[in-house]
Amino acid sequence: MTPGQPIRVVMTKWGDRPHWEYDAVYLGSDEHGEWLGCPTGTHYRRPGMEFVAAFSGVVLVPARGAAYLAAFNDEHAQARTYVDMTTPAVWDGAVLRAVDLDLDVVERQDGTVYVDDEDEFAEHRVVFGYPPDVVAMAEQSAASVFAAVRQGAAPYDGTADAWRAKLATAY
């Protein structure tokens, strides 16, 4: 990948059910993983819902195959940090693919941090038949990310600010 390269993010739900899709731009990488930029005006679409973002943000595709995708948004978004628990993301050329596993760690602009969609996760693990190892991975990932966000541990320590600045000046 090269900085400035267009990227397509394709999220599905378990069983290859369509979920969020959007375009981004590759910004670069660091010790935390690869960073994608989503400028204001990015069009997000999933079955039954779509919107054009009135905010910008960057997405961290974590190194070492961690089971989440983390979005760090500007002050115009409701959530400063929004982390989707997923299967480890995979690159398919310039398309990033991951399966959303329902659980989300959210940090609001006021600093409140919580785990969202636990009810959806409980329902889907039965209805969609999540294997036990996938359930354990999602729960462990959510617990680890929640603790890191609350503690302000890297990359939830302002690391994304430099990438958001790069997005703002370059795209």
UniProtKB/TrEMBL annotation:
Sequence ranges assigned to domain DUF402 in this UniProt record: 38-152
The answer to whether the entry has keyword Ion transport is no
User: Per its UniProt record, what SUPFAM superfamilies does this chain match?
Assistant: FomD-like
- Extract the GO molecular function terms from the UniProt entry: hydrolase activity
Key words, A-Z: Hydrolase
InterPro entries reported for this sequence: DUF402 (IPR007295), FomD-like_sf (IPR035930), Ntdp-like (IPR050212)
Protein name, as recorded? DUF402 domain-containing protein
Q: Which organism is it from?
A: Nocardioides antri
Its taxonomic placement starts with: Bacteria, Bacillati, Actinomycetota, Actinomycetes, Propionibacteriales
